[in-house]
Amino acid sequence: MLTNSDIEALEDILFAEPWGDDSLDFFGFHGVVCASVVGPASLNMATIFRLVTGSDEAPGGGIPDTFRQCVTQLARDMTKSLDMGQALELPEPEDGDPMNALENWCAGFVDTFLEYENEWLDAASEEETADLMVPMLTLSGLFDDEDFQRVRTSEKLSQRMAEAIPDSLTDLYLLFHAPD
Known about the structure:
By secondary structure, this protein is mainly alpha-helical. It is 68% helix and 0% strand. It has nine helices and no strands. Helix 5 (98-115) packs antiparallel against helix 7, helix 6 (117-123) crosses helix 7 (126-139) and helix 7 (126-139) packs antiparallel against helix 9. The mean pLDDT is 93.
């Protein structure tokens, strides 16, 4: 579990020059790390850094240690929870708009999925993977699809989708990582 000081130090990195304008916030970062744990593609630290910051490459001095530590700790905690059969808990903002935080989380998760879509769809049943991705795809705000927009504008339907995410994550993890 990341502490508040870990998150603050991480956000100092995320919002720093030169990538601060294109970088995801903590919620998007969490979504990227979650997708790296749940999905079938093995992502190295440089790839996660690139996905989170929107940069083409790691900084000249290398990936900051704080970033590495946060990714490692968060991925370890997620894997441990999933291996123990526990549902993942998504981060919630201490203040502000929880749906905006969820949208940012989903956008980070979906961006990672889209970057490795072929691996995700080839590793298991394409239909099953697609079905399990629906809540994250819908709430990510990345698509102009009429059905997705209708769900996002309905508080009741949005809440249902949000509540489905932990089970979808568990099922995706099992789909890609459970022994045959």
